[in-house]
Each structure stands twice: as C-alpha cells, then as structure tokens.
Amino acid sequence: MNNIKLNEGSKPSQIQLELVVFEEDGYQVAYSPALDLAGQGNTVEEAISALKETVEITLKYASANKTLHQMLLGLGWTLQEKPKHNYVPPKFLDIDLKKSLHVKKFSRQTIPVMA
Fold first, then answer.
1. pTM (predicted TM-score)
2. Is there a contact between 58 and 35 (Cβ–Cβ < 8 Å)?
3. For the chain, is the Cβ count within 10 Å smaller at the N or the C terminus?
4. pLDDT at 100 over 60
C-alpha cells in the first residue's frame, strides 16, 4: 500500500511505497509506479537500495523547494486532509504495469522509505 503522511511542516514523516521488481538487460530493476522512479542493481537488494536513495533525494528536494504537493498531484495522487494529511496514489493494475513496463514477470513488494 502506497502512502505518504506529512508532519506539521509539510515534510514527509512516513512513507510506504509499493514497488515492482523485474529484470531488464541483465540488471534487477525496482520501480515505484506511484512516484515513477526506479533504481537498478546487480541484485534485487541493490535495486531496492538504489530506489530508496532516489526516492529520498527526490522527496527531500521537493520538500525543500515546496513542490512536493504539486509533484504528487501531477502524478495522480490525492490529498486526504483528515485525520492527518495523507497522500494517496492512483491504483496500478498488474496487467497495466506489465504492458507499460514491457515485462512478463515481476514481483510486488512494499518498502518503508525514510525522508
């Protein structure tokens, strides 16, 4: 389940991302459809680590430049304001992901990311 919760200063305080992992050109790729970001490596662990780093850098940059809200809405997320500010992404079906990624097989995982 994807979600981003904000603290008082509009900075992400809790992030859970669903990702898909697949092989491409001999590398493992970890892709977050909700943020349209990816990381790659020789192993699944390296790919996930690279994705986490990319997400952290992207969210810190967007928060610092006060563009996080605009970025998430542009990616199709919606903002739930009660009980706390919480961004909710659009849903991605496996069949649609397979077509858009041009892969036949992938695994879904959920990872926590520190922002």
1. 0.77
2. yes
3. N
4. yes
